[in-house]
Amino acid sequence: MTNKDLLSITEEFGSPVYVYDAEKIISQYNRLTNAFKVSELRLHYAVKALSNISILKLLSLLGCGLDTVSIQEVKLGIKAGVDPSKIIYTPNGVSLEEIEEVVKFGVQINIDNLSILEQFGSRHPQIPVCIRINPHVMAGGNSKISVGHIDSKFGISIHQMPHLLRIVENTGMHINGIHMHTGSDILDIGVFLYASEILFEAARNFKELEFIDFGSGFKVPYREGDIETDIEDLGQQLTKKFKDFCKEYGRELALAFEPGKYLVSEAGKFLARVNVIKQTTSTVFAGIDSGFNHLIRPMFYGSHHDIVNISNPEAKHRFYSVVGYICETDTFGNNRRISEIREGDILSFSNAGAYCFSMASNFNSRYRPAEVLWHEGKAHLIRERETFEDLTRHQVELDFPVLNNELAENN
Ligand SMILES: *Cc1c(COP(=O)(O)O)cnc(C)c1O
Which domains are present in the chain? Predict the structure, then answer.
Protein backbone atom coordinates (compact mmCIF):
# COMPACT_ATOMS: atom_id res chain seq x y z
CA MET A 1 0.00 0.00 0.00
CA THR A 2 1.60 3.27 -1.09
CA ASN A 3 0.82 6.67 0.41
CA LYS A 4 -1.15 7.40 -2.74
CA ASP A 5 -3.27 4.27 -2.21
CA LEU A 6 -3.92 5.29 1.39
CA LEU A 7 -4.89 8.84 0.42
CA SER A 8 -7.30 7.57 -2.20
CA ILE A 9 -8.88 5.35 0.46
CA THR A 10 -9.59 8.36 2.67
CA GLU A 11 -11.08 10.15 -0.35
CA GLU A 12 -13.33 7.20 -1.14
CA PHE A 13 -14.33 6.10 2.37
CA GLY A 14 -13.74 9.20 4.48
CA SER A 15 -11.74 9.56 7.67
CA PRO A 16 -10.93 8.27 10.15
CA VAL A 17 -10.61 4.82 8.62
CA TYR A 18 -8.81 1.53 9.33
CA VAL A 19 -7.01 -0.13 6.41
CA TYR A 20 -5.60 -3.67 6.49
CA ASP A 21 -3.14 -5.08 3.98
CA ALA A 22 -4.19 -8.66 3.15
CA GLU A 23 -0.79 -9.44 1.62
CA LYS A 24 0.98 -8.61 4.91
CA ILE A 25 -1.38 -10.91 6.85
CA ILE A 26 -0.71 -13.68 4.33
CA SER A 27 3.08 -13.23 4.50
CA GLN A 28 3.07 -13.28 8.33
CA TYR A 29 0.97 -16.44 8.24
CA ASN A 30 3.38 -18.07 5.80
CA ARG A 31 6.38 -17.03 7.89
CA LEU A 32 4.93 -18.78 10.92
CA THR A 33 3.98 -21.95 9.06
CA ASN A 34 7.46 -22.16 7.53
CA ALA A 35 9.24 -21.71 10.87
CA PHE A 36 7.91 -24.85 12.55
CA LYS A 37 8.77 -28.05 10.73
CA VAL A 38 6.62 -30.49 12.70
CA SER A 39 4.29 -33.21 11.45
CA GLU A 40 1.21 -31.19 12.37
CA LEU A 41 1.17 -27.45 13.07
CA ARG A 42 -2.12 -25.91 14.19
CA LEU A 43 -2.38 -22.14 14.04
CA HIS A 44 -5.37 -20.53 15.73
CA TYR A 45 -5.72 -16.83 15.05
CA ALA A 46 -6.70 -14.93 18.23
CA VAL A 47 -9.98 -13.34 17.13
CA LYS A 48 -9.94 -10.64 19.81
CA ALA A 49 -7.06 -8.87 18.04
CA LEU A 50 -9.21 -7.99 15.03
CA SER A 51 -12.57 -9.67 14.64
CA ASN A 52 -13.90 -8.46 11.30
CA ILE A 53 -15.58 -11.39 9.54
CA SER A 54 -13.69 -10.76 6.28
CA ILE A 55 -10.39 -11.01 8.17
CA LEU A 56 -11.54 -14.28 9.76
CA LYS A 57 -12.52 -15.56 6.31
CA LEU A 58 -9.19 -14.61 4.79
CA LEU A 59 -7.26 -16.42 7.53
CA SER A 60 -9.55 -19.41 7.34
CA LEU A 61 -8.94 -19.68 3.58
CA LEU A 62 -5.20 -19.82 4.33
CA GLY A 63 -5.88 -22.86 6.55
CA CYS A 64 -5.77 -21.03 9.87
CA GLY A 65 -8.07 -21.96 12.77
CA LEU A 66 -9.32 -19.57 15.46
CA ASP A 67 -8.66 -18.91 19.13
CA THR A 68 -11.75 -17.49 20.81
CA VAL A 69 -12.41 -16.11 24.29
CA SER A 70 -16.19 -15.63 24.18
CA ILE A 71 -19.23 -17.40 22.75
CA GLN A 72 -19.74 -14.39 20.49
CA GLU A 73 -16.30 -14.86 18.95
CA VAL A 74 -17.15 -18.53 18.38
CA LYS A 75 -20.33 -17.47 16.56
CA LEU A 76 -18.43 -14.92 14.46
CA GLY A 77 -15.95 -17.63 13.47
CA ILE A 78 -18.69 -20.05 12.47
CA LYS A 79 -20.45 -17.27 10.54
CA ALA A 80 -17.16 -16.68 8.71
CA GLY A 81 -17.25 -20.33 7.63
CA VAL A 82 -14.55 -21.67 9.93
CA ASP A 83 -14.90 -25.38 10.69
CA PRO A 84 -15.78 -25.69 14.43
CA SER A 85 -13.15 -28.41 14.80
CA LYS A 86 -10.56 -25.70 14.01
CA ILE A 87 -11.81 -23.36 16.72
CA ILE A 88 -10.43 -23.41 20.24
CA TYR A 89 -12.35 -21.66 23.02
CA THR A 90 -10.11 -20.31 25.79
CA PRO A 91 -12.27 -18.26 28.14
CA ASN A 92 -11.30 -16.89 31.52
CA GLY A 93 -13.81 -16.62 34.31
CA VAL A 94 -16.90 -17.39 32.22
CA SER A 95 -19.90 -19.34 33.47
CA LEU A 96 -20.39 -23.10 33.11
CA GLU A 97 -23.58 -22.22 31.20
CA GLU A 98 -21.62 -20.36 28.50
CA ILE A 99 -19.12 -23.23 28.18
CA GLU A 100 -21.99 -25.71 27.80
CA GLU A 101 -23.54 -23.50 25.07
CA VAL A 102 -20.21 -23.42 23.22
CA VAL A 103 -19.84 -27.22 23.47
CA LYS A 104 -22.93 -27.56 21.27
CA PHE A 105 -21.03 -25.93 18.38
CA GLY A 106 -18.42 -28.69 18.50
CA VAL A 107 -15.41 -26.48 19.23
CA GLN A 108 -12.40 -27.46 21.35
CA ILE A 109 -12.91 -26.42 24.98
CA ASN A 110 -9.96 -25.13 26.99
CA ILE A 111 -10.53 -24.84 30.75
CA ASP A 112 -8.41 -22.68 33.02
CA ASN A 113 -9.65 -23.31 36.57
CA LEU A 114 -10.23 -26.33 38.79
CA SER A 115 -13.76 -25.44 39.89
CA ILE A 116 -15.19 -25.36 36.34
CA LEU A 117 -13.03 -28.33 35.34
CA GLU A 118 -14.61 -30.45 38.06
CA GLN A 119 -18.17 -29.32 37.28
CA PHE A 120 -17.68 -29.74 33.53
CA GLY A 121 -15.98 -33.13 33.95
CA SER A 122 -18.79 -34.45 36.16
CA ARG A 123 -21.48 -33.42 33.68
CA HIS A 124 -19.70 -34.19 30.38
CA PRO A 125 -16.97 -36.77 31.04
CA GLN A 126 -17.07 -37.89 27.39
CA ILE A 127 -16.15 -34.46 25.93
CA PRO A 128 -12.38 -34.05 25.54
CA VAL A 129 -10.97 -30.93 27.16
CA CYS A 130 -7.71 -29.01 26.92
CA ILE A 131 -6.32 -27.51 30.11
CA ARG A 132 -4.66 -24.14 30.40
CA ILE A 133 -1.60 -24.36 32.60
CA ASN A 134 -0.08 -21.37 34.36
CA PRO A 135 3.65 -22.08 34.11
CA HIS A 136 4.57 -19.13 36.36
CA VAL A 137 6.92 -17.34 34.06
CA MET A 138 7.05 -13.57 33.95
CA ALA A 139 6.73 -12.49 30.35
CA GLY A 140 5.16 -9.74 28.31
CA GLY A 141 5.62 -6.13 27.30
CA ASN A 142 3.85 -4.56 30.30
CA SER A 143 1.90 -5.57 33.41
CA LYS A 144 -1.51 -5.41 31.70
CA ILE A 145 -0.48 -8.00 29.12
CA SER A 146 1.61 -10.29 31.33
CA VAL A 147 -0.66 -13.18 32.24
CA GLY A 148 1.57 -16.13 33.14
CA HIS A 149 3.06 -15.00 36.45
CA ILE A 150 2.36 -16.45 39.90
CA ASP A 151 -0.47 -14.10 40.94
CA SER A 152 -2.13 -13.98 37.52
CA LYS A 153 -5.81 -14.96 37.24
CA PHE A 154 -5.08 -17.11 34.19
CA GLY A 155 -4.51 -20.84 33.97
CA ILE A 156 -4.25 -23.66 36.47
CA SER A 157 -1.06 -23.45 38.48
CA ILE A 158 1.47 -26.19 37.82
CA HIS A 159 1.63 -26.52 41.60
CA GLN A 160 -1.99 -27.72 41.57
CA MET A 161 -1.23 -30.69 39.32
CA PRO A 162 -2.04 -33.31 42.00
CA HIS A 163 -5.46 -31.75 42.55
CA LEU A 164 -6.03 -31.52 38.79
CA LEU A 165 -5.14 -35.18 38.31
CA ARG A 166 -7.55 -36.18 41.09
CA ILE A 167 -10.39 -34.35 39.31
CA VAL A 168 -9.56 -36.04 36.01
CA GLU A 169 -9.47 -39.45 37.65
CA ASN A 170 -12.67 -38.97 39.67
CA THR A 171 -14.71 -37.65 36.76
CA GLY A 172 -13.23 -39.97 34.12
CA MET A 173 -12.81 -37.01 31.77
CA HIS A 174 -10.45 -36.97 28.78
CA ILE A 175 -7.66 -34.43 28.49
CA ASN A 176 -6.64 -34.01 24.84
CA GLY A 177 -4.51 -30.88 25.03
CA ILE A 178 -2.17 -28.86 27.21
CA HIS A 179 -2.09 -25.10 26.79
CA MET A 180 -0.32 -22.02 28.02
CA HIS A 181 -0.42 -18.33 27.10
CA THR A 182 1.89 -16.19 29.18
CA GLY A 183 1.58 -12.70 27.77
CA SER A 184 1.93 -10.39 24.81
CA ASP A 185 4.98 -8.68 23.29
CA ILE A 186 7.40 -11.39 24.44
CA LEU A 187 10.79 -10.67 22.93
CA ASP A 188 12.94 -13.35 24.53
CA ILE A 189 12.42 -16.73 22.88
CA GLY A 190 14.03 -18.22 25.99
CA VAL A 191 10.68 -17.66 27.70
CA PHE A 192 8.96 -20.04 25.26
CA LEU A 193 11.77 -22.59 25.48
CA TYR A 194 11.81 -22.51 29.28
CA ALA A 195 8.01 -22.70 29.52
CA SER A 196 7.99 -25.58 27.03
CA GLU A 197 9.87 -27.72 29.56
CA ILE A 198 7.14 -26.98 32.10
CA LEU A 199 4.42 -27.89 29.60
CA PHE A 200 6.17 -31.14 28.68
CA GLU A 201 6.44 -31.97 32.36
CA ALA A 202 2.68 -31.39 32.72
CA ALA A 203 1.97 -33.35 29.53
CA ARG A 204 3.66 -36.49 30.88
CA ASN A 205 0.68 -36.90 33.22
CA PHE A 206 -1.80 -37.42 30.37
CA LYS A 207 -1.94 -40.35 27.99
CA GLU A 208 -4.59 -39.15 25.51
CA LEU A 209 -3.07 -35.91 24.29
CA GLU A 210 -3.53 -34.74 20.70
CA PHE A 211 -1.81 -31.36 20.90
CA ILE A 212 0.30 -29.00 22.96
CA ASP A 213 -0.57 -25.32 22.57
CA PHE A 214 2.08 -22.69 23.30
CA GLY A 215 -0.32 -19.75 23.10
CA SER A 216 1.17 -16.61 21.68
CA GLY A 217 2.71 -13.30 22.61
CA PHE A 218 5.17 -12.89 19.75
CA LYS A 219 6.50 -9.35 19.66
CA VAL A 220 6.24 -7.35 16.46
CA PRO A 221 8.30 -4.24 15.63
CA TYR A 222 6.68 -0.89 16.48
CA ARG A 223 9.31 1.45 15.09
CA GLU A 224 12.18 1.38 12.67
CA GLY A 225 15.01 -0.74 13.99
CA ASP A 226 12.80 -2.30 16.67
CA ILE A 227 13.55 -5.90 17.48
CA GLU A 228 10.87 -8.57 17.13
CA THR A 229 10.50 -12.18 18.27
CA ASP A 230 12.91 -14.21 16.13
CA ILE A 231 10.32 -16.65 14.80
CA GLU A 232 12.79 -18.58 12.67
CA ASP A 233 15.14 -19.12 15.62
CA LEU A 234 12.24 -20.04 17.91
CA GLY A 235 10.96 -22.37 15.18
CA GLN A 236 14.23 -24.18 14.94
CA GLN A 237 14.80 -24.58 18.67
CA LEU A 238 11.23 -25.38 19.69
CA THR A 239 10.75 -27.82 16.81
CA LYS A 240 13.71 -29.80 18.06
CA LYS A 241 12.52 -29.83 21.66
CA PHE A 242 9.01 -30.74 20.55
CA LYS A 243 10.17 -33.63 18.38
CA ASP A 244 12.30 -34.98 21.21
CA PHE A 245 9.31 -34.81 23.52
CA CYS A 246 7.03 -36.59 21.02
CA LYS A 247 9.59 -39.39 20.73
CA GLU A 248 9.61 -39.79 24.49
CA TYR A 249 5.80 -39.53 24.64
CA GLY A 250 5.60 -42.31 22.06
CA ARG A 251 3.33 -40.51 19.58
CA GLU A 252 3.37 -37.53 17.23
CA LEU A 253 1.40 -34.64 18.72
CA ALA A 254 0.24 -31.47 17.01
CA LEU A 255 2.08 -28.26 17.89
CA ALA A 256 -0.32 -25.34 18.31
CA PHE A 257 -0.04 -21.53 18.55
CA GLU A 258 -2.57 -18.72 18.87
CA PRO A 259 -1.05 -15.63 17.28
CA GLY A 260 -3.06 -12.42 17.27
CA LYS A 261 -0.71 -9.45 17.00
CA TYR A 262 1.83 -11.34 14.93
CA LEU A 263 -0.65 -11.94 12.13
CA VAL A 264 -2.43 -8.59 11.94
CA SER A 265 -0.64 -5.80 13.85
CA GLU A 266 1.68 -4.56 11.10
CA ALA A 267 -0.94 -5.11 8.38
CA GLY A 268 -3.06 -2.28 9.78
CA LYS A 269 -2.91 1.48 9.24
CA PHE A 270 -5.19 3.96 10.94
CA LEU A 271 -5.78 7.09 8.86
CA ALA A 272 -7.07 10.30 10.40
CA ARG A 273 -7.38 13.90 9.21
CA VAL A 274 -5.83 16.86 11.01
CA ASN A 275 -8.60 19.25 12.05
CA VAL A 276 -6.49 21.90 13.69
CA ILE A 277 -2.91 22.96 14.33
CA LYS A 278 -2.65 24.64 17.69
CA GLN A 279 0.51 26.46 18.58
CA THR A 280 0.99 27.13 22.29
CA THR A 281 3.96 28.72 23.99
CA SER A 282 5.60 25.32 24.47
CA THR A 283 4.09 22.87 22.00
CA VAL A 284 2.60 22.49 18.54
CA PHE A 285 -0.48 20.28 18.75
CA ALA A 286 -1.96 18.48 15.77
CA GLY A 287 -5.59 17.73 16.63
CA ILE A 288 -7.12 14.94 14.54
CA ASP A 289 -10.68 13.84 13.76
CA SER A 290 -10.40 10.88 16.15
CA GLY A 291 -9.39 10.00 19.69
CA PHE A 292 -8.82 7.15 22.11
CA ASN A 293 -12.37 6.04 21.38
CA HIS A 294 -10.96 4.71 18.08
CA LEU A 295 -7.41 3.78 19.08
CA ILE A 296 -6.94 3.35 22.80
CA ARG A 297 -3.55 1.63 22.95
CA PRO A 298 -1.39 4.73 23.54
CA MET A 299 -3.57 5.91 26.43
CA PHE A 300 -4.30 2.44 27.82
CA TYR A 301 -0.97 0.65 27.50
CA GLY A 302 1.42 3.48 26.69
CA SER A 303 1.89 1.83 23.29
CA HIS A 304 3.91 3.43 20.54
CA HIS A 305 2.40 3.86 17.07
CA ASP A 306 4.56 5.48 14.41
CA ILE A 307 2.82 8.50 12.87
CA VAL A 308 3.52 9.68 9.32
CA ASN A 309 2.07 12.65 7.45
CA ILE A 310 1.20 10.95 4.17
CA SER A 311 -0.17 14.19 2.68
CA ASN A 312 3.18 15.99 2.93
CA PRO A 313 5.83 13.26 3.36
CA GLU A 314 8.75 15.13 1.75
CA ALA A 315 8.47 18.31 3.84
CA LYS A 316 10.84 19.40 6.58
CA HIS A 317 10.40 17.60 9.89
CA ARG A 318 9.05 19.46 12.91
CA PHE A 319 8.00 18.39 16.39
CA TYR A 320 4.31 17.78 17.11
CA SER A 321 2.13 16.40 19.84
CA VAL A 322 -0.62 14.47 18.10
CA VAL A 323 -3.84 14.59 20.10
CA GLY A 324 -7.45 13.43 19.80
CA TYR A 325 -10.76 15.22 20.31
CA ILE A 326 -11.91 13.35 23.44
CA CYS A 327 -12.69 15.60 26.41
CA GLU A 328 -9.95 14.33 28.69
CA THR A 329 -6.25 13.72 28.15
CA ASP A 330 -6.10 12.08 24.74
CA THR A 331 -2.58 11.84 23.35
CA PHE A 332 -1.39 9.62 20.50
CA GLY A 333 2.20 10.79 20.69
CA ASN A 334 4.21 13.57 22.34
CA ASN A 335 7.01 15.47 20.60
CA ARG A 336 7.01 13.37 17.45
CA ARG A 337 9.18 14.29 14.51
CA ILE A 338 6.74 14.47 11.61
CA SER A 339 7.02 16.15 8.22
CA GLU A 340 5.29 19.52 8.37
CA ILE A 341 1.58 19.14 9.11
CA ARG A 342 -1.06 21.44 7.61
CA GLU A 343 -4.73 21.45 8.55
CA GLY A 344 -6.50 18.88 6.37
CA ASP A 345 -3.48 16.57 6.06
CA ILE A 346 -3.90 12.83 6.59
CA LEU A 347 -1.81 11.14 9.27
CA SER A 348 -1.13 7.41 9.10
CA PHE A 349 -0.67 5.41 12.33
CA SER A 350 1.27 2.14 12.09
CA ASN A 351 0.64 -1.19 13.85
CA ALA A 352 -3.08 -0.50 13.72
CA GLY A 353 -4.20 -4.03 12.91
CA ALA A 354 -4.28 -5.61 16.38
CA TYR A 355 -6.26 -4.39 19.39
CA CYS A 356 -7.24 -1.15 17.70
CA PHE A 357 -10.63 -1.38 15.99
CA SER A 358 -11.54 -4.31 18.25
CA MET A 359 -11.15 -2.03 21.30
CA ALA A 360 -12.92 0.98 19.75
CA SER A 361 -15.96 2.46 21.46
CA ASN A 362 -18.60 5.15 21.01
CA PHE A 363 -17.25 7.35 23.83
CA ASN A 364 -18.22 11.00 23.28
CA SER A 365 -21.03 9.62 21.09
CA ARG A 366 -18.75 9.34 18.08
CA TYR A 367 -19.22 6.79 15.32
CA ARG A 368 -16.79 3.92 15.05
CA PRO A 369 -14.78 4.18 11.80
CA ALA A 370 -15.04 2.21 8.60
CA GLU A 371 -12.68 -0.70 7.90
CA VAL A 372 -11.12 -1.39 4.50
CA LEU A 373 -9.20 -4.44 3.30
CA TRP A 374 -6.54 -3.82 0.67
CA HIS A 375 -6.31 -6.97 -1.40
CA GLU A 376 -4.67 -7.54 -4.80
CA GLY A 377 -4.29 -3.83 -5.47
CA LYS A 378 -7.87 -2.88 -4.62
CA ALA A 379 -9.66 -1.40 -1.62
CA HIS A 380 -12.63 -3.37 -0.30
CA LEU A 381 -14.96 -1.92 2.31
CA ILE A 382 -15.35 -4.56 5.07
CA ARG A 383 -17.23 -2.43 7.62
CA GLU A 384 -19.29 0.69 7.08
CA ARG A 385 -18.76 3.72 9.23
CA GLU A 386 -21.46 3.91 11.89
CA THR A 387 -24.34 6.36 11.65
CA PHE A 388 -26.54 8.19 14.13
CA GLU A 389 -28.98 5.25 14.10
CA ASP A 390 -26.21 3.02 15.49
CA LEU A 391 -25.90 5.31 18.51
CA THR A 392 -29.62 5.20 19.32
CA ARG A 393 -30.52 1.68 18.13
CA HIS A 394 -30.72 0.00 21.55
CA GLN A 395 -31.70 2.98 23.63
CA VAL A 396 -35.17 3.04 25.17
CA GLU A 397 -36.66 6.50 25.35
CA LEU A 398 -39.02 6.95 28.31
CA ASP A 399 -42.16 9.12 28.08
CA PHE A 400 -42.29 10.32 31.74
CA PRO A 401 -46.11 10.89 31.71
CA VAL A 402 -46.33 12.03 35.36
CA LEU A 403 -43.51 14.55 35.04
CA ASN A 404 -44.96 15.78 31.77
CA ASN A 405 -48.38 16.28 33.40
CA GLU A 406 -46.89 18.19 36.30
CA LEU A 407 -44.97 20.35 33.90
CA ALA A 408 -48.18 21.07 31.98
CA GLU A 409 -50.09 21.91 35.19
CA ASN A 410 -47.40 24.27 36.43
CA ASN A 411 -47.38 26.23 33.21
C1 LIG B 1 -4.91 -12.55 23.56
C2 LIG B 1 -4.59 -13.99 23.44
C3 LIG B 1 -3.76 -14.46 22.41
C4 LIG B 1 -3.10 -13.56 21.39
O5 LIG B 1 -2.04 -12.83 21.90
P6 LIG B 1 -1.14 -11.90 20.93
O7 LIG B 1 -0.17 -11.24 21.81
O8 LIG B 1 -2.06 -10.95 20.25
O9 LIG B 1 -0.51 -12.80 19.93
C10 LIG B 1 -3.55 -15.83 22.33
N11 LIG B 1 -4.11 -16.69 23.23
C12 LIG B 1 -4.92 -16.27 24.22
C13 LIG B 1 -5.52 -17.26 25.15
C14 LIG B 1 -5.18 -14.91 24.37
O15 LIG B 1 -5.96 -14.50 25.38
Answer: 22-260 (3.20.20.10), 268-385 (2.40.37.10)
